[in-house]
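Our example copied in:
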Amino acid sequence: MLLLWALGYAAACAASPFARCRRCEGVGKTIKPNGRVKRWCRHCKGTGLRLRTGRRAYNYLRRLRRQGTRPTRVRTTPPRPFGK
């Protein structure tokens, strides 16, 4: 059951990496009780979207692997003989 949930969440993160901001509920701004705008949401910077936790973890692991592996170097010219 847990594996099925994890696969479903991974598919959701791949298909839609962004979700509605929890703080402003996807509006992008904080609203006063009288209906006027108080200020832009600081958490989503006014977009109303946030990056899903699973997508954030995937991006971190991908970046970590990219930084930890050496790029393969392809020589285009043959090495020069020593002393010339």
